[in-house]
Amino acid sequence: MTAPDNLRYTPDHEWVLLEGDIVTVGITDHAQQELSDVVFVELPDMGDIEKGSPCAVVESVKAASDIYAPISGEIVEINLDLVADPSKVNTDPYDGGWIFKMKIDDLSQVEALMEASSYIGLVR
Amino acid sequence: MVSFAGWEMPVMYSSIMEEHQAVRSKVGVFDISHMGQIFVSGEKAQRWLNVLLTNDVSALEVSEAHYTFLLNEGGGVIDDLLLYRLEEEHFLMLVNAARIDQVMDWLEQHLLEGVSIANESSEWAGLAVQGPEAPEIYSRITGGRCLPARNHLDDVTHEGARLLVCRTGYTGEDGFELFCPHGTVIQWFNKLIDEDAVPCGLGSRDTLRLEVCYPLNGSDLSEERTPLEAGLKFFVALKKDVEFLGQEILIKQAEEGLSERLVALQYDAPGPPPRAGYPVLADGGEVIGVLSSGAYSPSLGTGIAMAYLPFGHSKIGATVHIEIRKKIIPAKVVKKPFYRK
Hints:
The complex is a heterodimer. Chain A is of the alpha+beta class.
């Protein structure tokens, strides 16, 4: 199980990458291992969303799993590559398997999320 | 791990997809120790079973097994099971774990003098070894033994312990199911793993059986549905020389036609995997049924499902709609099974 140091994490097993005022969101390596065999990703609608609202669904052969907005903001981009190849969530969870990007106003929301070491402690 | 009929069982060991493909292309092993073993014996055993079960017990040879149903008076399925004829007057019923108590209750209620029944479920463990390489692996773990013919069994003693081996399964592949005293099952499991059988969990057991349209009791079968509605009349001997419990309703259904049938549904395009419980809608949007089973099919790369639908919507080629999180996914009624070798 990997959890890169440059990302922040939620207790719902999402990762967040902050670049400027844009955050990229995906699910962690631990989450993809638990789900295994991702075969469908229901991508979110564009627009404003509140922290904690369900906005996407990752479906593996085993189960459907809701993805929650890790912070409040506006969804501005979705990873359309996942339509043709949802298994990228398994094979490349921290890069090609990203799910959506949000524009956020309050950058301190990201600071409030877990660092890698805390997240690793949570799932161990 | 999930709770299943009082057992803790793995959904998967590594990946449902990998376990599924291992069974389709090589060989996998499932722990089926949860299943129930009820032994039936006595000079009247055959005739008694023939009154309780839908298939024709008199057609079963010694060392042969067949699939059959135990029905209630309304023709609903108490359990679907394999009946093994171990000796002329000695039978084994292999029943679903979740139905052992109901089956025993039913058998005890209908017990006759001259028939004895014994629930030995807690003394036996079992493994299902499934896939094209199953015959070879059986030979390797038993020092050169050959598998019995399809639907036949060997009742042998191996290294001092009893071993029942039957060439049956729940995956649509060649393979066998072995039953042994529970203390000896770990050695068989380890031998199989040492010979590269892939350990498989409940997840792939479900995708494999659904691809070949084998019903799951409690989902596709219930006390409210008859085997005819489930499309399984092949295992119902309506013309055998004794009348079985529930037969009246089945004859009525056969004569008058069925109002609902268990159909196979398949996606035309990629979509979220169908899962049991999702509503099925007609073109106009009215709910016409509920998925009894559903999965992403690893072999076909698309969604597959089964549902009881009204006769008017059950024709091959008919289009229906599956509702998933308020979205509508089209699916076609297709011929069973979804997958053929």
